[in-house]
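Students often ask why we bother encoding 3D structure as a string. The short answer is that it lets us treat folding as translation between two languages. Here is a chain of 219 residues written in the first language.
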Amino acid sequence: MPSTVVHVAVAGLIGVALLGDRFDAKAILVVMVAAAVIDLDTLIGIYFPGTHRAAFHNIWIVLVPAVLLVWDVKLRERSTVLERWGEYGYRVGWVTLVAVLFGHILLDAFYNGVNLFWPVYDRFFDLSGKMIITDQRGFVQTFIEFESGDDGTRVAESTARGTTEDTHYSTGFDPSRDDPPEDVERIFPIASSGELFIITVAGYLSVGYRLLEQWRTGK
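And here it is in the second language, the structure alphabet:
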């Protein structure tokens, strides 16, 4: 699974791309820290089993602040965000939400699953799959698979998996749903594949280059 180290690197890439002339050390720090905070539900899961990949890994954690941000900036006569932080704060705010959504929640969803709509709808969705075009089967996607039954067509169990009652994602802090044996190996991944390693290196190098460039040019 993508580690926190990977999520922060991807958020850094998104921040470098979208912050534009608002990029500075403080702005990119906000974006990258926000991406890391999502994984704190790992600790919540220790006390409330099943809530890791649910409590903070859901669409509402981004959608609710996004609606409030748009309402405040675009619909109110006097915007609290613009009065206090100006256009700089508005840009950092929506870039942070984009980075959290794509750099963390959806990255995990398309890797091995998150509880996207918890607590409104308790179901882990695993959107891992592939998208290909072949000369025999045409366009093929397996991100969301369907199956037919007597009660009609529904999302297959390979996509819509368990609930918080029966699902556990192993982490170094919480390797098993029940009490782990004393000699259990606690694994804290950094990059679980070569692809993720390359993305991680690219993310931190991009952020480092932009910070160095800003330091040298002053902009």
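Translate back mentally: The first helix runs from residue 4 to 18. Keep this in mind for the problem set.
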